[in-house]
Design a protein that fits this description.
It is a single chain. The protein contains 11 helices and 10 strands. The strands form 2 sheets. The chain has an 8-stranded mixed beta sheet. Helix 8 packs parallel to helix 10. The N and C termini lie close together (6 Å).
């Protein structure tokens, strides 16, 4: 996640963003369209992204105005990301109207994406998700975080492993592409094995298109809350331990369909890229080199959310 907005779109006049704006790294060149503001759940103890906002579904007229402003200045826009953190919390009909407006405004549009919360995929039917996909929403970014039931409670994720599997299965039945993330270090020094093993077990039960790892980074403003909700002293993993977690995860991943694996988020100490299961040995070899100290890790001052 990042707060950067494509400088071309952010310079559109009189388009104004309700800051901060977060988007996945792969949406760096996308038109960020705020369909909603904030996050309707906003209680995950590890996440501070939308703590300064009150969740709001923006009026359709306001969203359409933003689309028209950008369409006049950048009619060849190819990618759109529906922000903020919970666009799918909006009712299906307004979302369909937004998608239709995007298709009309941008003849060369190739992809529309958004974040998806567990509750979003549970509340919307497969038929509704299929409608959204047919209208142009093709990619969802989904934070699994961990597959361990106890840790999901400790981080106040608001979901169970079973609910995560159910929601992701519905999305795939609707034909949506899924880019999922898991967070290394989330179990700390005590629960890291449970975290990694249960996460691999969950991922092996769903069809994902992309899987990325992030490393746990806590904003100072929520550090005390995270510690309190974790229910016992949390002992942070160091870089070496996080690399060991990554090894254990990749060793155990046996996805039901080939998926693209990445650790290219700015929080990671080591950037990895490959296809699983095809590139398993190559990825493990890179990790072993890093553990041996022959590959330089990203300095901490260059890491970010």
């Amino acid at each position: 996640m990042t707060t950067e907005i494509n400088p071309f779109f952010s310079s559109c006049q009189p388009l104004h963003y309700d800051l901060p704006v977060w988007r996945p790294p792969s949406e760096a060149d996308s038109f960020i369209l705020q369909a909603t503001l904030g996050c309707s759940f906003n209680r995950c103890s590890f996440c501070s992204m939308y703590r300064t906002k009150t969740f709001t579904i923006r009026p359709l007229d306001a969203v359409n105005t933003d689309i028209q402003i950008v369409a006049r200045q950048y009619p060849n826009t190819r990618r759109v990301f529906l922000a903020d953190g919970d666009a799918l919390a909006a009712p299906t009909d307004p979302l369909l109207a937004i998608l239709q407006a995007l298709q009309t405004a941008f003849p060369r549009l190739e992809r529309v994406s958004s974040y998806a919360l567990p509750a979003n995929l549970l509340k919307k039917s497969v038929a509704e998700l299929t409608q959204l996909r047919e209208a142009g929403l093709t990619l969802l970014y989904y934070g699994i975080e961990t597959g361990a039931a106890d840790l999901l409670k400790r981080i106040t994720k608001g979901a169970t492993p079973e609910a995560i599997i159910t929601g992701l299965t519905k999305a795939k039945q609707a034909g949506l592409n899924i880019s999922a993330t898991v967070i290394l270090g989330l179990g700390g020094q005590i629960y890291w094995r449970e975290h990694i093993d249960a996460t691999a077990e969950l991922v092996n039960q769903v069809k994902l298109d992309y899987l990325s790892t992030l490393q746990l980074m806590l904003d100072p403003m929520i550090h005390a809350e995270f510690q309190r909700k974790f229910r016992e002293p949390f002992q942070k993993q160091d870089d070496h331990a996080l690399l060991v977690e990554q090894v254990r995860l990749i060793e155990r991943l046996n996805p039901p369909a080939p998926l693209t694996f990445r650790s290219n988020h700015a929080s990671n100490a080591l950037a990895l890229a490959g296809e699983l299961p095809r590139d398993r040995e190559k990825l493990l070899a890179q990790l072993e080199q890093a553990l041996a100290g022959t590959v330089r890790l990203r300095p901490e001052w260059l890491r970010g959310y």
